[in-house]
Each structure stands twice: as structure tokens, then as C-alpha cells.
């Protein structure tokens, strides 16, 4: 993102904002976090804002980059910092609101600086989408020109960009209207590089004894720990491999559980980073056994069994009886690692869903209060009373949206 004065001040404001929430970070960490956001969401620097909708879109952009590039796309603490800023956006504390207002002011300066740079020095492809010359300069979010000469220069740039865009549109229309390529009537001599997925999962015996490059393997963007790599013995084909979870990430998850509890937003953010990966049933069980205290792990294991049983029942009704309880749990005929890495990619998504639901069903021991005991004070505004209910429900249930009917009943 560069090291201009405005961007340095933005890093400073980010550190002050997090310090108000009890988290201190280094300047290098703040700069790295802003650089990652600028890479994943380049629109955010020039046209975004420090508000909840735009910040939620930044999270979705980060998740897309994580799926495309794998777990090494950015440090794991990126989602932690995102969550802390998100908590600040939702916070009602006066000090946090004051720091957030200062950060927004610096953010506007950075946007104006970026707009000036794009219009004066940036290449055509890096500039924001042009607007007609007759639009107000305030609508563009940029500075008002200081003289008529600057206005004429900017107007000339915009007109040139409009001409270039019209020319590119005509070229695209010409390509689109061109005759489609002729498809040969005879079948190709060489088979396709990757076998098409037929919706069939190989039996465990097939996976163990001799899973060929086209048996039960589909070329898809699987990410660690289950990965698809080129087959060195068969060029153009792929094989599946398993890579263990990094110790540093498991340790970070363990520290989050011990410091904050399994249901705190900070811990749930770390857990979501694992849910975005393709973990086998054995991976989930080893991870939860390592990070949860004795009783909590047994509770998670029981909830995980119930969730897998429910998913297996729905699979059977949908005509996918082969996605049974043993496959989802990694038991019986699917208790080996070689069998579990041969699953359909859709099965990993179902396993992650079951593991996430089981985790969110764990009791929140840190929440010692009950919603029914929260009463509105004689002079307390109704909005503050409802906010207290929502914050406590977030600590107890984790996902407030699913329990909103209960909150509404208590509030009214």
C-alpha cells in the first residue's frame, strides 16, 4: 500500500483502535494487515468505507483468496484482526467510537490521496471507473480542482478514457458476434487430461489397494490437508495427498480456547479458518482432541455424531446413500487415511458443517448470566436494553441470528 504520510497515520490509528479493545500490535503487523486487505479487496482503498457492509465484503474477499491460494495466502492472524475491527464497528463504547471516528477521517485522506495518484500518475488500467465530465467532483470522492487548467486536464483524461472504453466494447462485440469454432465430428485421439466426476465414490478397498489417477479423483481446488497434485508417473493426471495440520496453527487454536473459551468471537474466527479447509474426519477429531479440555471434547464428539447421523439421513433420502454415517465419521470401512482422502469434495463440506455445528453446540462456561435475568432499568432507553440482550445472547449462543425469536420475546 505504500508508506505515505496518510497511510502511516492510518496504521497508527488502527493500532490505537485495537489498543482500546485490549490488543496491542506492532506497526509492521498493522502495515502487513492493510497490505493484505489491499491485495484481497483492491476496491476497498479507493471506494470502500469503514462500515459494516463493506467490512463484511472484505471478509468474503479474504475467504475467496484463502480458497484459491491455500492456507499460505496470508498469516492466520489476519482473521483475528478482521474480527477485532468488526467488533469495534459494532461496539457502543464511547472511546472505541472516538478512535473509530478518527480512523475514518484518516481513511478519507488515504482515499483522496489514492484518487489523486490514480488520476495523475497511475496507468489507465489502475484508475477507477471513469464518470462523465459533467458529474460533480464530490461524487467521485476526489478533491476539487484548484484551477480551470486542472479541470481541463482532468476533463481531457476522462474523455480519453471514455473513448478507450467505447473502443474496447466494440472489439468485444466483434469477438462475441464472430462465428463459433467448428467442432470436429470425430472423437479426439487423446483422452481428456482429467477424468470427469461421475458422482461415484470408490469403495475403501479400491482406494487402499490401487487408486489410479482417474479412480475417485477429480481435478478441483482442494486445499490442505487434502490436496491434489500432479502425478509424476502419469503426466496430465493428478493424485491426492494428505498433509498434516501445521503445529503453529493448532497451537494458536489451543491458546484461543484456553484464553477466551470455545464460544468467544475471537475463538470462533480461528475455528472458521479451519472450517474453510478440506479436513478429513480424522483431522477434525485430532484437532478437537488437542484443543478442547476433556469434558468439552466428549461433548463435541457426541454432538458431531448426532450431526453426522442427521446428514446421513438426508443423504439417503436424496439418493446418495453411499454418503453414510461411516463415511462422515471416518469409521468402519472408512477408518483409514487413504480411504478418507478419496472422498467426493462435497463430502468434506458436509463433514466441516457437522464439525462446526457440533462446536457451536458446546456450552459457554464464560457466560454466567441468563437472558431471563436481564431487566430494563427505570430510566434505561429501550434500545440500550435490547442491545444488552443481544450482546449477552452472542456470548451464550454464539450465533445471535438463530436465537433472535427468543430475544424478541424477552424484549417485548
UniProtKB/TrEMBL annotation:
It comes from the Eukaryota. GO terms for molecular function: structural molecule activity. Transmembrane segments: none annotated. Signal peptide: none annotated. Residues 108-157 are annotated as: Disordered. It holds the Pfam family Gag_p10. Residues 146-155 have a biased composition (Acidic residues). Residues 12-89 form the Beta-retroviral matrix protein domain. GO terms for biological process: viral process. InterPro entries: B_retro_matrix, B_retro_matrix_sf, Gag_p24_C, Primate_lentivir_Gag_pol-like, Retrov_capsid_C, Retrov_capsid_N, Retrovr_matrix. Residues 369-412 form the Retroviral nucleocapsid Gag protein p24 C-terminal domain. PANTHER family: ENDOGENOUS RETROVIRUS GROUP K MEMBER 24 GAG POLYPROTEIN-RELATED, IGE-BINDING PROTEIN. This is IgE-binding protein. It comes from Erinaceus europaeus (Western European hedgehog). The gene is LOC103116551.
